Amino acid sequence: MSQVLDYDPETKDRSPKTREDGAFQWELACLFRPIEGDRRHTVGIVPVKIWAKTKPVVKIGAQPQFVNFRVIPWSNDNGCGLSYADDDVKTVAQ
């Protein structure tokens, strides 16, 4: 889990990305495994963005349980893609 940083091109500084309520944005690297029989996708790492006032705790290798998970399409001058966001994350008991 790492904190997402904003880049200011004027000052060339990076600072934690925050929301109006003071929550920070965090990025959790998740292992994506396609469902059996899916031939279009491959195993990969998918970054999921989470807003929280303190760093969420997820054990390495634990299965995360997302709250209000969503996929957000984006487009800018550099291209387009998908962003993955979530309101909260918990660890599933194994």
Q: Could you describe the 3D structure shown?
A:
With 94 residues, this protein is mainly beta. It has one domain. 0% of the residues lie in helices and 54% in strands. It is built from no helices and nine strands. The strands form three sheets. It has a five-stranded mixed beta sheet, with no helix packed on it. Strands 2-3 form a two-stranded antiparallel ribbon. A two-stranded antiparallel ribbon has the order 6-9. It is globular, with a radius of gyration of 15 Å. The mean pLDDT is 89.
Largest sheet: 5 strands, mixed
Task: Return the domain count.
Answer: 1
- N-to-C SSE string, H for helix and E for strand: EEEEEEEEE
Number of strands: 9
Strand content: over 45%
Distance between the termini: 20 Å
